[in-house]
Amino acid sequence: MEDQLPVIKQILPLTETMGESLQHIQELLHDGRFEAAMPLFDDLVQAYSSIERALQPFFEEWEETEDLESQTALMKNSLDAVVSALEKNEYEHVKEIMQFTLLPQWKKWHQLMESRFQRFLHS
Description:
It is built from four helices and no strands. It has helices at residues 5-30, 34-61, 66-87, 91-121.
């Protein structure tokens, strides 16, 4: 797993940046600046996709990754729900998904990755 250390070192900061982006997007939506939030959300989806691809080898090589795999899938479902609501211009629904689903799921996802990867960063 030593060869995966560079990937681990990139995943955690990228997930932190995703959290900051989610909060900023939420502020923009709250202020009614939907058009300004769109490109940021596109970047967020790209970041998620990169992380999801980077996690696949861990899911295949490690034991007991069901919790992280499950949370990763929940993140994807929530991101898909936001994209769907954005495409329909359902901005109030987007705000609800962000506040009550996506942000809490991101926090859990990030915590799971931190707990899983911390041992490699301090070895």
